[in-house]
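STRUCTURE:
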């Protein structure tokens, strides 16, 4: 974990830039909503500084009096935009099975009938060079092929909803969206946090108190669009909270270019009539700070040292009334044409003496061919070194085995042409006492007690596994626990198949048989299986030694 120093906490006042409150996701009767764009903008002026009307593009094939709906929406937006008072934006929502994406300020459009693939949509976006946003990233609507990374599209998809007011549970910033925000950042996307109301009723701005905070120089069309392109945003369930994450002259959403891994300073300013209950500073490497400030005003300054040449930091906050706020990140990056992300060490649980695999992606962020040397290190020792060639914006996926690992903390590092561009830490636990498989496929009356036993065994250093479809894959298993069937239930679910019996007969480990309530099948099992008959209490003693 990186070095962190708390420099200053809780001042009586805070200094803010201009913060404006917007809703970047709404619909009208031009698709499946209500009212006209004119009505939407006029209504929203009572609640918002900024409203974007983003109707579903698959409704656009039908024109109105010979004019396209994006054109008519744009005219309405221009009529309602007034410097210093209100900014109206126009766009559309592309919807497909992989997810929904807003595109802003474009008279040209694309829908799922024209292009239903992410690759095709991203090609269109890059060609048209328009600002875009990942909408409501949850499994219900799609998560963009688990946020598969496209470096060139990353220049244009600059926003992501961490909350959506049309979410069926009523929870605007919900756990799944928040988790997918982090997932997208870990894949390499540079995204600003937003909250959209996704209005389908005539309640533009009043559906709830969810807002996107936009930090801009002034309330003008140019300044608001500039702020959105730069990701100078935060997503909030509170309609007027002031939250500002900075690093020197840089604002949340900025990519700060650094030449080395020297300490950096980040600061957070918060102000609202509602007290702040909880605050967490979250980075790519994990949560670096948690506080319970209990204050309406906060000025927090931290000194942090990025562990490598690609690290982001954002702040999550929760107020006493339950409202949540999520800022955009600040990135600290060493200049490089090639970066590494999507790092994953598998399996998640590793024990002393076991090996693992490191999965990662290497990609070119430039429009030019690149030739580089990539070094993968484990605790500063080379795992793999390779000369690599990349075409423009190419992504390559790799898997590197670690070899046998010792108990303790380990760090895998990625060096491109001598620059440490990424790293990731993981821990190795004590050596396993053994692998236990518990049969849960066949009718038995000990399931709850066996679950408790499994928890106790894991605490004692065993790995517990369960058969998925059939009790036949026993490779790597040391101990097999089988309960004979319970009284009642389904007879076909009690029987051991021929393949299961063959696997049990060839099994070289220890077999324990726990008697169940069905006496007939208890006799059958004991005739078919050679094992030690024990109670669950006896098992606890036998395996707890």
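SEQUENCE:
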């Amino acid at each position: 974990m990186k070095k962190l120093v708390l420099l200053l906490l809780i001042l009586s006042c805070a200094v803010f830039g201009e913060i404006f409150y917007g809703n970047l996701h709404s619909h009208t009767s031009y698709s499946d909503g209500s009212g006209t764009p004119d009505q939407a903008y006029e209504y929203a002026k009572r609640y918002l500084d900024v409203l974007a009307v983003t109707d579903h593009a698959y409704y656009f094939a039908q024109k109105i009096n010979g004019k396209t709906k994006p054109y008519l929406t744009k005219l309405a937006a221009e009529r309602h935009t007034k410097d210093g008072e209100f900014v109206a934006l126009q766009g559309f929502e592309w919807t497909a099975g992989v997810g929904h994406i807003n595109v802003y300020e474009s008279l040209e459009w694309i829908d799922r009938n024209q292009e239903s693939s992410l690759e095709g949509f991203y090609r269109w976006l890059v060609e048209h060079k328009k600002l875009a946003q990942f909408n409501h990233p949850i499994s219900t609507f799609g998560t963009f092929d688990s946020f598969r990374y496209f470096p060139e599209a990353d220049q244009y998809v600059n926003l992501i909803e961490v909350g959506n007011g049309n979410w069926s549970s009523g929870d605007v910033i919900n756990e799944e969206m928040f988790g997918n925000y982090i997932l997208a950042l870990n894949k390499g996307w540079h995204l600003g946090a937003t909250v959209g109301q996704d209005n389908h009723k005539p309640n533009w701005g009043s559906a709830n108190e969810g807002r996107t905070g936009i930090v801009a120089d002034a309330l003008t069309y140019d300044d608001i669009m500039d702020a959105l392109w730069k990701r100078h945003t935060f997503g909030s369930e509170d309609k007027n909270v002031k939250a500002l994450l900075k690093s020197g002259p840089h604002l949340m959403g900025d990519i700060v270019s650094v030449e080395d891994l020297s300490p950096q300073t980040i600061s957070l300013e918060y102000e609202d009539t509602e007290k702040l209950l909880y605050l967490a500073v979250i980075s790519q490497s994990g949560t670096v700070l948690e506080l319970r400030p209990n204050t309406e005003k906060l000025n927090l300054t931290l000194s942090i040292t990025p562990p490598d040449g690609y690290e982001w930091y954002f702040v999550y906050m929760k107020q006493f009334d339950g409202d949540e706020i999520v800022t955009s990140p600040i990135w600290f990056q060493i200049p490089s044409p090639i970066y590494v992300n999507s790092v994953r060490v598998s399996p998640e649980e590793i024990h002393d003496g076991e090996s693992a695999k490191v999965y990662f992606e290497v990609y070119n962020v430039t429009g030019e061919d690149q030739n580089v040397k990539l070094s993968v290190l484990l605790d500063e020792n080379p795992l793999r070194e390779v000369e690599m060639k990349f075409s423009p914006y190419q992504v390559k996926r790799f898997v590197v085995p670690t070899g046998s690992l010792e108990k303790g903390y380990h760090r895998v590092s990625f060096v491109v042409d001598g620059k440490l561009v990424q790293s990731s830490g993981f821990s190795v636990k004590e050596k396993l006492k053994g692998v236990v498989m518990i049969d849960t496929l066949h009718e038995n009356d000990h399931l709850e007690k066996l679950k408790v036993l499994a928890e106790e065994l894991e605490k004692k250093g065993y790995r517990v596994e369960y058969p998925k479809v059939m009790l036949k894959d026993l490779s790597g298993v040391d101990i097999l626990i089988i309960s004979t069937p319970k009284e009642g239930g389904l007879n076909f679910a009690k029987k051991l198949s021929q393949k299961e019996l063959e696997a049990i007969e060839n099994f070289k480990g220890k077999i324990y048989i726990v008697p169940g309530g069905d006496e007939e099948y208890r006799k059958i099992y004991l005739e078919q299986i050679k094992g030690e008959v024990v109670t669950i209490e006896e098992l606890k003693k036998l395996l707890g030694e």
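REMARK: The mean pLDDT is 94.
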